[in-house]
């Protein structure tokens, strides 16, 4: 018989769902409108049932024996027993089909009792079953449904009886037809109730359900009818009838177990997929600063999961308690009836779960503490199981009050909930792991701010939706200095402090990222360039304030560049490129090196860096096409004025940009990692030139400049040795010039390379001496043969006594260490004479010659030098005066 339980019916019928509706994602409860409609529907069903019973009782007089007064109580007990032996099979979420045996006493009732007795027995048994199951809210509806079932059954039986000629007793065909009418009537009432409650059920599901009901009803009715006919004719045959009935019941139970296992597996799969899909949907959402582990849970999705577990267990309520963070309290998600207000107490005994197994609490068997907790929940019994992963409590699942069976939760329910909790814990753990990986992929581990990919993702939507967006790029120029002086731990502390300052200044809703080192980027929206400049100024002032790190106070300077989106950036419906704005802001930061510490991007800046980019990308091709050449600047000895060597200087004649200054393209080539290619090219050209001079009998050395990146190449000495061997040039005719700062940038790596080069016999010279460390200890540490006085001091000797004193000191220092002293930047005779008087060894500068191409150098040597034989039978070139 149909009752109001979520998933219980009698006489092989489908029951209505509990009239529940979502209440905002925090649980479910009875919707007021649905409740009112169901009350009206209950009144209609009850009224129709009473009216139909009165009509049928007058139409169908009883033809059996009225002296069998005990038939009524016996039928009532038979109906009650058939109800309790029902087998529940889930049809869909919230609706189940109960295979019961009430057709057997019903079909027998057609032959042994009047309509009123059968009706009373059926109603009494059905209502008693509902009250025993504590289902009191739908008694009137079910009483009306019981009346309509039995009334329609007797009405159809009477019609069939009259149609076949009206025999003295009820014919078996009429009894069978009437019995099959009862479950069909119950099904129609249940489907109508589903519609009243605004639930949906597919037509195909309804037809399949009706077909199954007819099949089961026919089998049950046939067994009852056959048993009655056999026993009435042959009383001693009742053991056979009983055996057949027991066999049929066994088949039903076996079929029920198979279907239950199938439905349990489907439920396990559904729950795991729901959790996994919700995790994937969370992972697909853009990263944000508030996107911490667990905070991306959509509780609407978890209500659906709770409802699915509730339906599978046929429980009145399922509560999922989820712990988002280890130190946070659990948050409850309810499927089914709402929890009473004020739950749950911190010391709730139902949540003290030391193990990982399902615990079954019954109010009739519990101690006072547990009984009070169940009463707080308004429940008679509860299944509670923790969700654990690696000894970590992720949550708790509670199921309250089994509705589909009179005896409450059984061992199958305990097993199902335990397995489901294990799957749910695994899915939750995987989701948390995915959230952790996603967080780490989009956030900087040191500061917790976004990283570059995270900033790119977060900025995409604002750039698409807002017309005025500005990207700020902030660089602290003290990071490398602090790292070298105090170590990376102190530098990291400064970075974290700077990140906090930027966050406090811009607010928590502004996307903020740490790009690398001490570089940050922020996206501010709805700002004009003027407002962005003012914000950048305030930010620079804030970041330039001293940083108290432990007991130290570190001075810092900040440079801020910003780039605003222009009208051309969002044309053709395309989103503004985040990387383009970051690149422009970076260009603006680089432009601050000129003095201003806050700069906005302008297109002319982009042209400069575009030119550098083109030069870097075209450099290799330029070498192959002959655009890059080597010029040579002569060096002469003092006071003899013999040409002792040349310095090889690289030149680039670009087809588009014309002559490119080395100060422009060499740093760009070095930053792009192509300095090794450049050094190899110059070395090859220089050694080839020396080889040809040797073939002419001239012994002229060549100097090649080295980069700090050359000194980081462990294979560089071997490459140089190979080049010397290929060209047959003595090592002493090759000089490598290197700057003080280049060596001291990483002395631990540079000094072994220099010692290896010096061991080959190559001359090493310190270039631009006097502008860097310039100490006696420094010179004694390096394996060098020459020092070159920086031209800034040589040019100022004639007018600045301090420059003259510096030059004299360098000459004396070099000679005291046994080094050759070379002065570059000699442009006047006075300077040459002063250097000669000081004892300087070699002079180089425009007074002697500008850097010359190879052809012009040959012409210069022929025109300005005299050739003579030296004591080594080699040609010596002496400058003509």
UniProtKB/TrEMBL annotation:
Keywords: Membrane, Transmembrane, Transmembrane helix
InterPro entries given in the database record: Cyclic-di-GMP_PDE-like, EAL_dom, EAL_sf, GAF, GAF-like_dom_sf, GGDEF_dom, Nucleotide_cyclase, Rev_trsase/Diguanyl_cyclase
Name of the protein in its database record: Diguanylate cyclase (GGDEF) domain-containing protein
Entry keyword Transmembrane helix: yes
Residue ranges with Low complexity bias: 1-22
Transmembrane portions of the chain: 40-60, 67-87, 107-132, 139-160, 172-197, 209-231, 237-255
NCBIfam families membership: GGDEF (TIGR00254)
SMART domains: EAL, GAF, GGDEF
Alphabetized CDD domains for the sequence: EAL, GGDEF
Pfam families found in the cross-reference section: EAL (PF00563), GAF (PF01590), GGDEF (PF00990)
Keyword Transmembrane: yes
Region (Disordered): 1-31
Lineage: superkingdom: Bacteria
GO molecular function, one term: cyclic-guanylate-specific phosphodiesterase activity
């Amino acid at each position: 018989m149909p009752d109001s339980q979520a998933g219980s019916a009698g006489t092989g019928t489908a029951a209505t769902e509990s009239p529940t509706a979502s209440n905002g994602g925090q649980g479910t409860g009875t919707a007021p409108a649905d409740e009112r409609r169901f009350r009206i529907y209950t009144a209609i069903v009850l009224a129709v049932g009473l009216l139909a019973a009165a009509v049928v009782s007058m139409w169908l007089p009883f033809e059996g024996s009225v002296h069998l007064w005990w038939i009524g109580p016996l039928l009532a007990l038979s109906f009650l027993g058939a109800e309790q032996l029902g087998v529940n099979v889930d049809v869909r979420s919230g609706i189940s089909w109960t295979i019961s045996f009430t057709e057997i006493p019903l079909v027998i009732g057609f032959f042994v009792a009047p309509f009123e007795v059968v009706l009373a027995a059926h109603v009494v048994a059905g209502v008693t079953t509902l009250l025993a199951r504590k289902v009191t809210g739908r008694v009137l509806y079910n009483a009306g449904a019981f009346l309509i079932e039995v009334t329609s059954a007797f009405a159809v039986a009477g019609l069939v009886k009259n149609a076949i000629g009206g025999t003295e007793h009820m014919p078996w065909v009429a009894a069978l037809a009437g019995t099959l009418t009862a479950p069909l009537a119950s099904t129609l009432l249940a489907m109508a109730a589903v519609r009243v409650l605004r639930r949906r059920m597919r037509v195909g599901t309804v037809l399949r359900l009706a077909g199954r009901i007819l099949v089961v009803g026919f089998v049950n009715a046939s067994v009852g009818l056959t048993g009655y006919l056999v026993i009435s004719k042959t009383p001693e045959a009742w053991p056979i009838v009983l055996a057949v009935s027991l066999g049929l019941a066994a088949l039903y139970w076996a079929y029920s177990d198979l279907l239950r296992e199938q439905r349990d597996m489907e439920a396990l799969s559904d729950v795991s997929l729901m959790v996994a899909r919700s995790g994937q949907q969370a992972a697909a959402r853009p990263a944000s600063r508030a996107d911490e582990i667990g905070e991306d849970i959509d509780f609407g999705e978890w209500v659906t999961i709770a409802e699915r577990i509730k339906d599978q267990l046929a429980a009145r309520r399922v509560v999922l308690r989820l712990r988002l963070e280890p130190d946070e309290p659990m948050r409850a998600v309810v499927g089914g009836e709402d929890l009473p207000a004020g739950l749950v107490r911190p010391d709730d005994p139902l949540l003290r779960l030391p193990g990982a197994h399902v615990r079954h609490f019954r109010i009739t068997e519990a101690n006072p503490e547990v009984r009070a907790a169940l009463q707080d929940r308004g429940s008679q019994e509860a299944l509670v199981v923790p969700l654990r992963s690696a000894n970590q409590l992720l949550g708790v699942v509670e199921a309250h009050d089994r509705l589909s069976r009179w005896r409450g939760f059984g061992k199958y329910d305990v097993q199902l909930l335990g397995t489901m909790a294990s799957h749910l814990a695994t899915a939750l753990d995987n989701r948390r792991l995915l959230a952790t990986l996603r967080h780490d992929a989009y956030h900087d581990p040191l500061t917790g701010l976004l990283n570059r990919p995270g900033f790119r993702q977060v900025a995409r939507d604002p750039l698409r939706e807002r017309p005025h967006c500005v990207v700020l790029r902030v660089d602290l120029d003290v990071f490398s200095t602090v790292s070298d002086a105090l170590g990376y731990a102190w530098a990291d502390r400064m970075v974290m402090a700077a990140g906090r300052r930027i966050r406090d200044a811009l607010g928590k809703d502004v996307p903020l990222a740490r790009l690398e080192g001490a570089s940050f980027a922020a996206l501010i929206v709805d700002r004009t360039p003027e407002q962005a400049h003012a914000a950048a100024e305030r930010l620079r002032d804030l970041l330039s304030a001293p940083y108290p790190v432990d007991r130290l106070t570190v001075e810092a300077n900040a440079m801020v560049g910003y780039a605003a989106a222009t009208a051309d950036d969002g044309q053709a419906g395309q989103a503004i490129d985040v990387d383009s704005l970051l690149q422009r802001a970076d260009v603006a930061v680089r432009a601050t090196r000129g003095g201003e510490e806050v700069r906005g991007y302008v297109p002319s800046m982009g042209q400069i860096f575009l030119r550098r980019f083109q030069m870097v990308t075209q450099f290799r091709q330029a070498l192959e096409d002959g655009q890059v050449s080597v010029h040579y600047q002569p060096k002469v000895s003092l006071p003899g004025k013999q040409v002792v060597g040349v310095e090889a200087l690289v030149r680039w004649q670009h087809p588009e940009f014309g002559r490119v200054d080395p100060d422009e393209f060499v740093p760009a080539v070095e930053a792009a990692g192509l300095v090794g290619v450049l050094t190899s090219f110059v070395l090859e050209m220089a050694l080839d030139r020396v080889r040809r001079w040797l073939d002419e009998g001239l012994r002229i050395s060549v100097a090649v400049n080295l980069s700090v990146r050359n000194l980081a190449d462990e294979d560089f000495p071997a490459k140089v040795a190979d080049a010397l061997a290929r060209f047959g040039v003595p090592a002493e005719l090759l000089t490598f010039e290197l700057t003080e700062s280049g060596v001291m940038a990483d002395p631990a790596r540079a000094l072994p390379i220099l010692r290896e080069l010096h061991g080959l016999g190559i001359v090493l010279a310190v270039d631009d001496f006097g502008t860097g460390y310039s100490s006696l200890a420094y010179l004694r540490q390096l394996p060098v043969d020459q020092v070159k006085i920086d031209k800034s001091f040589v040019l100022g000797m004639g007018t600045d006594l301090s420059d003259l004193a510096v030059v004299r000191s360098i000459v004396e220092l070099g000679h005291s260490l046994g080094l050759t002293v070379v002065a570059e930047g000699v442009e006047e005779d006075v300077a040459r004479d002063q250097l000669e008087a000081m004892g300087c060894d070699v002079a180089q500068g425009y007074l002697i010659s500008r850097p010359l191409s190879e052809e012009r150098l040959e012409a210069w040597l022929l025109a300005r030098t005299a050739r003579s034989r030296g004591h080594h039978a080699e040609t010596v070139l002496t400058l003509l005066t």
